[in-house]
Write a structure and sequence with these properties.
The chain is of the alpha+beta class. 30% of the residues lie in helices and 20% in strands.
Length: 488
């Protein structure tokens, strides 16, 4: 009997430290790779990752994303869509600005129209080009009028680029913000009450920015509970670190990852050359080197699953193994530039070990054709640049319009006419057909050399229960310690 009791006590003692260890106390520290988080007006230009996280958590839009990327009420408590899809009507919740003034539909409409104005530099202004007007119908009701149906409107409005920020500093939550006591970062607080709770529950988050190497090191040391904003450029830093099993997590991000030509005219501005370079990339080897679960090579501009679009048609050359097609590609390169003294290809890439991995892969792949590949000394001297962007919605229009004249250095002016027709047509099937035609024109001239999907990674500690990857790679800081399904 004593022996039996001893055997029962041993596993109980082994479990005791985990069961009795006090749970983490105090604010949840979140680090976003980049500079310090600060409030910024999206009309002034693109948002840095820490700023985007701050905005979406202290200056919600009419709608916002939950942890898994679903649309949930933000400043608008509910909304309706007209049968023809041309009118979205939002009822603004009764709310106050931090200075105590009432939030009105007139204020919200004015702030939204400012982001869509001609002189706005908001990077998502173009995807909302079908918006005809934003009108305050009453003090609590806003109507967004469209020239053609846009089923992807709500995901765009949930992006931090359309956060409702008054006077450049006042938002309506879900968090309230103040500078951190140590001067580093921002402290976010949120009071949560529900009908069956006698007292409010408080969420407390310390949001900071940091370089990738220090962010990873601090996470390993237990100084932070969550790291956001990782990209392909800094991924190896997280992969090499001795992080707890399961803490490195990836978003199933939708979007673009590949190369775009930067110079119109000159010896390297040749669609035939761009097709040659695309076919020579060993995408399987590169994707394997990134070691991201479920990451797949891509050879088309559009990806599967976009609204109203059929699955992209894979080019015929993919049916020939790379080793079998390389001799013909080398011979073609020799015919175009001669067997020796081919031009050097200069690439504009971000800093980081992941970017070096990509550079080494292209040096090897394009080197087999006789081209020398180097990192450009400056963007002005580059022939190609990396495009690494997450799609803000599931619309094919974003993918195609990214390469219109006025947005891309090398473009096809005929395609712009197709895009304007696609924007204005009220017939969805016709719009999708025009977008597919425009995508075909981009691929015909190889205005984009696709490689794979964008990579977005995070480090997530056991303290964080409410984290989930999503196609938009947007992460709310609400409910970080709540188990999924326990409510917002």
């Amino acid at each position: 009997m004593r022996r039996l009791l001893a055997l029962l006590v041993i596993p109980a003692l082994a479990l005791a430290p985990a069961a009795c260890r006090p749970s983490a106390k105090g604010a949840v520290k979140v680090v976003v790779i980049g500079g310090d988080p600060r409030l910024a007006d999206p009309a002034q230009g693109p948002l840095a990752a820490p700023t985007a996280v701050l905005l979406q958590n202290v200056a919600q839009g009419l709608v916002r994303f939950d942890a898994v990327g679903n649309i949930v009420p933000g400043l608008a408590e509910r909304w309706n869509v007209s049968d023809d899809g041309l009118s979205y009507i939002f009822r603004v919740a009764a709310a106050d600005w931090p200075d105590g003034r009432k939030v009105t539909a007139q204020q919200v409409a004015r702030l939204l129209k400012r982001q869509l104005a001609a002189r706005s530099k908001n990077p998502l202004k173009d995807p909302l080009g079908a918006v005809e007007d934003v009108v305050a119908m009453t003090d609590r009701v806003i109507e967004i009028r469209l020239i053609a149906p846009r089923p992807n409107l709500l995901p765009l409005l949930a992006q931090p680029e359309f956060a409702i920020l008054r006077d450049g500093r006042l938002g309506t939550g879900p968090f309230a913000a103040r500078p951190a006591s140590d001067g580093h970062g921002v402290r976010l607080t949120r009071e949560i009450t529900s009908g069956d709770e006698e007292s409010a529950r408080r969420e407390d988050v310390l949001l900071a920015g940091g370089k990738a190497d220090s962010a990873v090191a601090d996470f390993i040391a237990g100084k932070s509970a969550l790291v956001l904003g990782g990209t392909f450029a800094d991924l190896p830093l997280a992969q090499r670190a001795r992080a707890p099993r399961g803490s490195l997590q990836f978003d199933p991000a939708s979007g673009l990852f590949g190369l775009v030509p930067l110079k119109s005219g000159g010896g390297l501005d040749d669609p035939e050359l761009r097709h040659l370079l695309s076919q020579a990339i060993n995408r399987d080897r590169l994707v394997a080197a990134f070691a991201v679960p479920n990451l797949a090579p891509r050879v088309t501009l559009l990806e599967p699953g976009l609204d109203g679009m059929p699955a992209p048609v894979t080019p015929a050359w993919t049916g020939t193994p790379l080793g079998d097609r390389l001799p013909a590609l080398r011979a073609q390169a020799d015919r175009m530039f001669g067997a020796v003294n081919k031009p050097t290809i200069h690439l504009a890439l971000p800093e980081g070990p992941g970017a070096e991995l990509l550079l080494r892969a292209l040096v090897l792949d394009w080197g087999t054709l006789g081209f020398k590949v180097e990192r450009a000394a400056s963007p002005d001297s580059a022939d190609f640049a990396i495009v690494d962007e997450v799609a803000p919605s599931s619309s094919a229009a974003w993918f195609v319009r990214r390469f219109r004249c006025g947005a891309a250095p090398v473009c096809n002016s005929d395609m712009n006419e197709l895009l304007e027709s696609a924007r204005s047509t009220p017939i969805p099937a016709q719009r999708y057909a025009l977008l597919a035609q425009a995508a075909g024109m981009i691929e015909e001239r190889q205005l984009f050399i696709p490689i794979t999907a964008p990579i977005r990674w995070s480090l997530v500690s056991r303290r964080i229960q409410g984290f989930a990857g999503n196609r938009f790679a947007r992460h709310t800081l609400t409910g970080l310690e709540d188990k999924p399904g326990s409510g917002d």
